[in-house]
Amino acid sequence: MGYSIQELSEENAGAWDEFNKRCPEGTFFHNIKWKKLLENALNIDLKYWMVLSGQKVVGIFPLKSRSKVLLKGLDAIPHSEFNSILLDDDFNLQGLNEILALFASKYSFISLNLNKQTLLDHIGYNHYPSDNTGNMILNLQQKPPDSIWENFPAKKGQRKFIRRFDEKGFKIHEIRRQEDMKTFHQYYAENLRRINADILPLTFFQKLLETFSQDEMRVTLLSKGDIYAGGLLTFMHPAGKTAYFQYLSLNRNLPNTYHPTYFLFWEELNWAWNNGYEKISFGRQKMDPNNARFRIKTDFGAEYVPIHSRIVLLSKTASLLYRVKKYTLDARHERNSSTTRGS
C-alpha cells in the first residue's frame, strides 16, 4: 500500500497540527503545544510519528519511549485523557499491520489506544488487552442544558445542589494569575489525596497558564469572600467543538450540604453551550456505576465511550517474555487461590 512513517520534527510539525485539526477524532491532547508542555514540565521522553501515504499525512501516533527488560518499546502518552492513534476516515484498515511492521524494525513492543474496535481485527502481531477504561462524553446537540436540567430526578437533589451556591452568594471567577493558580492547586492536591490519585506538581499548572491562551484553557474558581468552594480547569479544542473538564479542585472541608462539583460542572457546561461547543468530555473513567464520580457524570448526561487498548508484541523476544510473565502471574494466582480455598 506504500505507507511510511516519519518522526515528528520542527520541519513537519505544521503538518501534524493540520491533520489533528481536520481529523474528526482530533483532540486538544494531540496538538504540538501539549507535547511540548509534557516534555518541558514533566520531562517525559515522547516519540511522535506521522503516517504517510505518498506525501499525504493519513495518521498520527503520539507515543512515549519505554524500555522493559532491555527491550525498546513505545507506550501511549501519559497524563492525557485522549491519547489514541488517529487515522483518516478513508484509511484502509488492512494497512494497520503494514504500519506496525515499520515500527518493528526498531521497537519490540508498542502500546496502542484505538478509537475503533474494528482496528483490532487488523493487527497481525500477538496483542493483548492492556487497560480497561473509557471517556465520559456528553453530546450537547442531543442533550442541551435545558434538557439536562429537566431530566435531573426530582428526588435526587441535583438542582438543589446547584441552586444552593447562588442562594448563599457564591460566585464564579475566571482566573489567569499565578497566585490564584496556587490556590487552585492546593485544593486540587487535597482532593486527589482523598482518593489516593496521582498529583501533578504546581509547576505543571504554572506552565499551563504560560502555555495556553484563554481560547485554549479556562480556569474557574467558586468562592464567597475568603471561602473557597472549588475550581475547574477546562481545555478547549475549537476545531472539534469539544471542551474537556480536566482538573477539579475541591474544598473537602465544606459542610456536607455543599456539593461544588455539581455547580462547577453546570456552570462550565452552560459556558460551553453558549460558546458553540458541541461535546463535553468529563474525563477518563472506568465503567463503574457504583463509583460516585461515575454517577455524577452520568447525572449530567455523559455516556461511557470505551477505549480499545492493546499491547502489541513486535518481536519474538517480546512475545516470549510476555508468555513467561503471564505464566508466572497465572501460577501465582492459582497458588493464592488454592491457599484461600484450603483455609
- Give the mean pLDDT: 93
**What order do the SSEs take from the amino end to the carboxyl end, as H and E?**
EHHEEEEHEEEHHEHHEEEHEHEEH
What oligomeric state do the depicted chains represent?
single chain
Overall structural class, as computed from helix and strand content, comes to: alpha+beta
- Fraction in beta strands: 25-35%
Categorize the overall geometry. globular
- The end-to-end span amounts to 59 Å
Mind telling me the C-alpha Rg?
Answer: 22 Å
Largest sheet: 8 strands, mixed
Overall strand count: 15
- The number of helices is 10
Task: Report the helical percentage.
Answer: 25-40%
Describe the structure.
This protein has 343 residues and is α+β, with helices and mostly antiparallel strands. The protein has ten helices and 15 strands. It has helices at residues 13-22, 32-42, 96-104, 145-151, 158-167, 178-194, 202-211, 260-274, 292-299, 316-342; strands spanning 3-7, 46-53, 56-68, 71-76, 86-87, 109-114, 126-129, 134-139, 171-174, 217-224, 227-237, 242-250, 279-285, 303-306, 308-313. The strands form two sheets. Strands 1, 2, 3, 4, 5, 6, 7 and 15 form an eight-stranded mixed β-sheet that branches. It is globular and about 65 Å long. The model has no long low-confidence stretch (mean pLDDT 93).
